[in-house]
């Protein structure tokens, strides 16, 4: 009897690894920051950059559920939030101390701390207690994110929570539609921003630039839990990319403007 050859499932589908998602998000973030510093006339760069943050928020939630040491994970976020603040202030405020806008790692850190509180209650208490605490955490996260003026404000913290609430439900269409609706509300209704007039089928519409963030669901949908390349140097390089590339952009901008 001839032997039947079965191809591995991984060989019959295309998916993105966690490493690939990180690299994609970093590239999109770099494009956004190039627009903010060296190439302000190239508005397409910041349009592409809208896709970066939801990917980072999604990966932060994945990191929470896959880390072997939550304390080290949060301390690492805290360390790089502190290290990134001066480069961020220099890039966005043109000064060493710019207290009215904090870098995006603070946004992710607030989200992770809120998730940890909700998960702690979820594991120890009844459903009604979890729902009550979750509602309070969501409100508190939105308020703290806004008052603390972290990047993307309270809407950014809510983005992290969105991916938390949909985590673990598999690749279901209702899950994708729920994420789409929630991200639309956060990005278009809460954040809003620049509107582009467009014409389609003879009708006039307005497209919200921040609404382009919803396109992040495409690469996120292509992620199936595969880690991909991983090593300590790569891990810390991903963290260090944030403050280092902002500092380099500021240095190049100052050199060009001399």
UniProtKB/TrEMBL annotation:
Matching Pfam families: TraX (PF05857)
Top-level taxon in the UniProt lineage: Bacteria
InterPro entries xref list: TraX
Transmembrane segments annotated in the record for this chain: 12-31, 43-65, 77-98, 104-121, 128-144, 150-166, 173-195, 236-256
UniProt KW keywords: Membrane, Transmembrane, Transmembrane helix
Protein name (database record): TraX family protein
Organism: Faecalibacterium tardum
